[in-house]
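Risk register update: the risk that structure generation would not scale has been downgraded. Supporting records follow, first protein first.
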Amino acid sequence: MKKAFTLVELIFVIVIIGVLSAVAIPQFSKLTDNAKISAELSTASSIQAALEGVHGEWVISSCDFTWGNNRPYSELNSDGYPTSLGESNTKPLNYLLKNAEIAKWTRAGTTYLGPASSSKGTSHCKDGKPCIGKSWSYNENTGEFKLIEP
């Protein structure tokens, strides 16, 4: 007597695989969006820490120091915060971050866009998280780098 799977058993296995796929595939599709959001939040946190580091150095020094990537203290305002975060719209954070050119951040005027808030970013986000339409704003008077709503 041959041992084999019956047609009912095979259909049952196919149905189980289909149900598992229906649950798992949508979760995997959000992984890219979540990675972009996490990368942008991590970079924004690093930017804020760097800004506070520059300000702290300004407070304790006698204004004779370099900050960021060898920037002179003359580029700081009267409160000890940078008046600019970078040289161009394609490398807007190169004064503060070592690898700013590969971080894929852009600048449009006074707002900054990261991987999740860029035009190819993600539209799946919650309050307080970056996504298409949201941007970051740098206030050079207070040194605040924060996410703003459209």
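Supporting record for the second protein:
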Amino acid sequence: MRIIGLAGWSGSGKTTLVTKVIPRLVARGTSVSTIKHAHQGFDMDKPGKDSYAHRMAGATEVLVGSASRWVLLHELRGAAEPRLGALLAKVSPVDLVLVEGFKREKLPKLEVHRPALGKPLLHPDDDWIVAVASDQPLTSATVPVISLDDVDKIVEVLLIEAMPIDKLEISVS
């Protein structure tokens, strides 16, 4: 498996870009999985569902399976938030893992940047950023800058710059 991240400030368009590149990668025959970091708590389950009742009763894990998909919900119950390496260990083998968020991790990353947000670029302080995708030219950038609208070029960069997971020092604990 190879891995590359998409990093940027909230509102920069990381998720929108991920949803644009995945179909193009899949069309090329590349199997893709994603790992997304959420800063706030989130819930994929809802009250009234059996799985929700199982979790609320205290189950650490609830696995729901059907003919279409399966999902494993794991409650931390006060345990530390898992590191990226621990989450990667749970992903089935694919050609490429796209990591959205985890901007402090040491893995190759494409920065998604919109100057209108008023936030600074991440790349001057992060040697792992290989390029920036932006909606405006960035004369101060010291890495390649790609238009956010040039999804084909972004896909090329992701494929070229992704690294084998076993070549990275990503902590499992």
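The chain has a mean pLDDT of 92. On this basis the risk owner (M.S.) recommends closing the item.
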